[in-house]
Amino acid sequence: MGAEFGNLIRIVGITYYTLSPYEQKALAGVLNPGFKNVLRRARESLFIMGVPAAFVYILVTSANEYHRKLHRKNPADYANDV
C-alpha cells in the first residue's frame, strides 16, 4: 500500500519536484519586506476601512443607548404610588 510520510509510493507519470533542505531558508524575508508591506497596506486602507468602521461603531453604540432608554421606566410616572 504505502509507507510512512516521506517515503510514499511513487506513481508512474507524475513528476515530483522538491527543494533540498540545505537550499531552503525557513523564515527568509518574513520580517524585512513582509512587515513593511503590512504597515504600508494598513496605512493605505486606513481611510477606506477606518471611516466606515468608525461610523458603524458610533451608530451601534448610539442605537444600543437609545434601546436601553426606551426600555427604562419613567420614575416620574410612579412618584405618587403608594
Automatic annotation (TrEMBL):
Task: Give the record's GO CC terms.
Answer: mitochondrial inner membrane; respiratory chain complex III
Cite the entry's keywords alphabetically. Electron transport, Membrane, Mitochondrion, Mitochondrion inner membrane, Respiratory chain, Transmembrane, Transmembrane helix, Transport
How the protein sits in the membrane? Answer: Single-pass membrane protein
Its domain of life reads Eukaryota
Show the SUPFAM superfamilies listed in the entry: Ubiquinone-binding protein QP-C of cytochrome bc1 complex (Ubiquinol-cytochrome c reductase) (SSF81508)
Q: Which InterPro entries match?
A: Cyt_bc1_su8 (IPR004205), Cyt_bc1_su8_sf (IPR036642)
Instruction: Return the Pfam families for the record.
Output: UcrQ (PF02939)
The entry's function note states: Component of the ubiquinol-cytochrome c oxidoreductase, a multisubunit transmembrane complex that is part of the mitochondrial electron transport chain which drives oxidative phosphorylation. The complex plays an important role in the uptake of multiple carbon sources present in different host niches.
Q: How does it assemble?
A: Component of the ubiquinol-cytochrome c oxidoreductase (cytochrome b-c1 complex, complex III, CIII), a multisubunit enzyme composed of 11 subunits. The complex is composed of 3 respiratory subunits cytochrome b, cytochrome c1 and Rieske protein UQCRFS1, 2 core protein subunits UQCRC1/QCR1 and UQCRC2/QCR2, and 6 low-molecular weight protein subunits UQCRH/QCR6, UQCRB/QCR7, UQCRQ/QCR8, UQCR10/QCR9, UQCR11/QCR10 and subunit 9, the cleavage product of Rieske protein UQCRFS1.
Name of the protein described by the UniProt record = Cytochrome b-c1 complex subunit 8
Say which species the protein is native to: Menopon gallinae
Q: What is the lineage of its organism?
A: Eukaryota, Metazoa, Ecdysozoa, Arthropoda, Hexapoda
